[in-house]
């Protein structure tokens, strides 16, 4: 007889008041289906993680919990960002669950993909990535920048699943190993492929956001991409080193050229070139110092070993 696994669905929430009731309704229906098929245990739950919301998200989570204890939650002491909120939920859920699915609250991730994720888990996969099968509904700019992000991350040497965000299934033993990753600068899409174990992929069509607005505008996405690169790759530092050798070689050529001009008495020639070179090299130096400073800043944050999140309220206790 097949074991009925305890499933926890972890959902980070930041100002999700407008969508939370619909998310709860759809997940209740999905849990009923899975319970009827005896795929999951009756101890399974949905864990909402309130990430310091400024609206009534937490009050709504408490209200939902009172009506149906399948839905529970934790509330962080302040806004810590999506990745930290997700970590808080995953590490809380692993103490109770056999398997955990993480997803966003906005209903863009296809809830029905959970069935296939669980099937692949039962067939031996410890990590199952939810991957978008197409981006037809995205604007041209969004599609180009998103796909460019994944390709650039690969180019920088980051092991990342193409078109995968944070919709994934993980087994308890994966989360036990994940708990050993103590870094403050989080980029979960790069961390889970590092853990290993058997992986699989489920493809799904991403829907439009049910309500509310995106919590990842362009500026935030760019910062997220930069965090991912600097947390998992030293290629920018190697690029600076390579660029230094190139500039050194060019400077030797300029020196030879200048000596030849001196010999022939053409000392005034090249003033424009010299001016441009000074500004160009000065700009490269500032950029290089900035990149090095970014890495030093990350080292500084890691050495402080401050907690990534603080749980203020916990409905599981």
Question: Can you characterise this structure?
Answer:
- With 317 residues, the chain is an alpha/beta fold.
- The chain has 2 domains: 7-232, Alpha-Beta Complex (Spore Coat Polysaccharide Biosynthesis Protein SpsA, Chain A); 235-304.
- 50% of the residues lie in helices and 15% in strands.
- The protein contains 10 helices and 8 strands.
- The chain has an 8-stranded mixed beta sheet with strand order 7-5-6-4-1-2-3-8, with helices on both faces.
- Helix 9 packs antiparallel against helix 10 (271-304).
- The longest helix has 34 residues, at 271-304.
Annotated CATH topology of the largest domain: Spore Coat Polysaccharide Biosynthesis Protein SpsA, Chain A
Corresponding CATH superfamily of the largest domain: Spore Coat Polysaccharide Biosynthesis Protein SpsA, Chain A
Highest-level CATH class of the largest domain: Alpha Beta
- Number of separate structural domains: 2
Q: Biggest sheet, strands in spatial order?
A: 7-5-6-4-1-2-3-8
Question: Could you report the average pLDDT, rounded to the nearest whole number?
Answer: 79
Counted beta strands: 8
Secondary structure class reads: alpha/beta
Note the beta-strand portion.
Answer: 5-15%
**Which sheet architecture does the biggest sheet show?**
8 strands, mixed
What's the helical proportion of residues? 40-55%
Rg, Å, rounded: 25 Å
H/E series = EHEHEHEHEHEHHEHHHE
Short note summarizing the structure:
With 317 residues, this protein is α/β, with parallel strands linked by helices. The chain is 50% helix and 15% strand. α9 runs antiparallel to α10.
């Amino acid at each position: 007889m097949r074991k009925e696994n305890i499933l926890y669905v972890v959902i980070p929430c930041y100002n999700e008041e407008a969508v939370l009731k619909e998310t709860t309704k759809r997940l209740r229906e999905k849990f009923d289906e899975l319970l009827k098929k005896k795929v999951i245990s009756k101890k399974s739950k949905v864990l909402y993680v309130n990430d310091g919301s400024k609206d009534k998200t937490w009050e709504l989570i408490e209200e939902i919990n009172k009506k149906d204890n399948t839905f529970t939650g934790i509330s962080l002491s302040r806004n810590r960002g999506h990745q930290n909120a997700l970590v808080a939920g995953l590490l809380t859920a692993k103490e109770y669950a056999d398997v955990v699915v993480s997803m966003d609250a906005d209903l863009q991730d296809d809830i029905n993909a959970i069935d296939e994720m669980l099937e692949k888990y039962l067939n031996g996969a410890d990590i199952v990535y939810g991957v978008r099968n197409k981006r037809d509904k995205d604007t041209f700019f969004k599609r180009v920048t998103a796909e460019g992000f994944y390709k650039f991350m690969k180019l920088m040497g980051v092991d990342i699943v193409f078109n995968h965000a944070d919709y994934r299934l993980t087994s308890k033993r994966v989360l036990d190993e994940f708990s050993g990753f103590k870094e403050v600068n989080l980029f979960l899409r790069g961390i889970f492929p590092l853990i290993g174990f058997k992986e699989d992929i489920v493809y799904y069509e991403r829907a439009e956001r049910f309500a509310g607005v995106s919590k990842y505008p362009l500026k935030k996405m760019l910062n997220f991409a930069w965090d991912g690169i600097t947390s998992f790759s030293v290629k920018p530092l190697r690029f600076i080193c390579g660029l230094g050798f190139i500039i050194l070689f060019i400077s030797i050529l300029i020196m030879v050229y200048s000596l030849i001009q001196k010999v022939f008495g053409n000392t005034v020639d090249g003033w424009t070139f010299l001016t441009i070179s000074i500004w160009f090299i000065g700009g490269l130096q500032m950029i290089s110092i900035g990149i090095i400073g970014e890495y030093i800043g990350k080292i500084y944050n890691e050495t402080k070993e401050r907690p990534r999140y603080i749980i203020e309220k916990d409905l599981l206790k």
